Amino acid sequence: MEIKLAKIVQRLNQSGADALVLHAPQNRRYLTGLRASAGTVVVTSRGEAVFVVDFRYSTAARQALGGSPMACEEVPVEEQDRWVGSFLRGSGCRRVLIEDQYLPLARARELEALWPAELAGCGWMEELRAVKTPEELRCIRTSQEIAEKSLLETLERVAPGMTERQVEAYLTWRLLENGSENGVFGIVAASGPNSALPHAVPTDRALERGDLLLIDFGALYRGWYSDITRTVAIGRAGEEERAVYALVQSACEAAIAAVSGGVSAAAADEAARSVIRQAGYAGFFGHGLGHGVGLDIHELPRLRPGSRDTLRPGNVVTVEPGIYLPERFGVRIEDLLAVEEKGCSRLTRMSRELIVL
């Protein structure tokens, strides 16, 4: 925590701001390690740091903070805004940064009326979170292991007649049994023509022999997400399905070869996109190549056309090219990568070869 606080203090001093106030659950957890539905973190440019929580979380917060330099204050929820205002006043804070991308305008105006300070937006917390520490990387790796174990156990049960909702339910159970936190993001389990919908919601459609089944999901371990997509065949795979699968696999491998520290996110996207475009399927890959993964399932950097992000060592990113043929079938293959100075390491251990169940 000390290193993270030091980075925030440095940013505050560089920006000329006196304090940063955090309300977003992911940012609170990033600094405190505690998963809580409410609370406020305040950090000043002088290095003062306090976690304001109500009675429900005070004991857990003190345990989470341990011997860290961040103090813990128990304040009823309805009084926390005024308490923070008093703290800012007492610390002489005149310019305060808030998470303008998280707080609604009405909420920001409430705080502006309560706090004796000029409020400005903070856009760099996600930048700090985008570069993972070794411990954070270990948590993401464990999260990915949980996801893959759960997927393999689920695939052992998948058979014709099983519905997409049943696949979703069984996979959810395996995730929780294998150590994932409750609160994983929505599972995509899409079969047959539904697999051509990139973010399909599971339905009561029963799997049929010859279907492709696209499964996209992740685990959540100590607050850290993982992400994986695999497309499998039920019973058999037709010639065209195999050809499209092989093309997406080649695009995924081209992207992995391109990912490295210092490479633009747009260039990584183009490495995969050019493979698909040259094969004549440009109009059937309509989303970005991937995204950062961490305390949020979608974080910086954004790997997509026109992205201004640059990949940095410590980033954890997905590469997930796909081809979607409307009302017929779709294929997506997604791996999770840790960006390094030169190249990347693959956190996904599962094979990218087509699985026929």
Structure description:
The chain is α+β, with helices and mostly antiparallel strands and 357 residues long. It folds into two domains: 2-129, Creatine Amidinohydrolase, Chain A, domain 1; 134-346, Creatinase/methionine aminopeptidase superfamily (Creatine Amidinohydrolase, Alpha-Beta Complex), CATH 3.90.230.10. Helix content is 36%, strand content 21%. It contains ten helices and 18 strands. The chain has helices at residues 2-15, 25-32, 58-65, 80-90, 105-114, 125-130, 134-155, 164-177, 239-258, 265-278; strands at residues 19-22, 40-44, 49-53, 71-74, 95-98, 118-121, 188-191, 212-217, 220-221, 224-225, 228-233, 290-292, 299-303, 316-319, 322-325, 329-332, 335-339, 344-346. The strands form six sheets. Strands 4-3-2-1-5-6 form a six-stranded mixed β-sheet, with helices on both faces. A three-stranded antiparallel β-sheet has the order 7-8-11, covered by helices on one side. Strand 9 and strand 10 form a beta hairpin. Helix 7 (134-155) crosses helix 8 and helix 9 (239-258) runs antiparallel to helix 10 (265-278). The longest helix is centred in the middle third of the chain and has 22 residues, at 134-155. The mean pLDDT is 95.
Concise synopsis of the structure shown:
With 357 residues, the protein is of the alpha+beta class.
Write the layout of secondary structure elements.
Elements: H1 2-15, E1 19-22, H2 25-32, E2 40-44, E3 49-53, H3 58-65, E4 71-74, H4 80-90, E5 95-98, H5 105-114, E6 118-121, H6 125-130, H7 134-155, H8 164-177, E7 188-191, E8 212-217, E9 220-221, E10 224-225, E11 228-233, H9 239-258, H10 265-278, E12 290-292, E13 299-303, E14 316-319, E15 322-325, E16 329-332, E17 335-339, E18 344-346
Parallel strand pairs: 1-5, 3-4, 5-6
Antiparallel strand pairs: 1-2, 2-3, 7-8, 8-11, 9-10, 12-13, 14-17, 15-16, 17-18
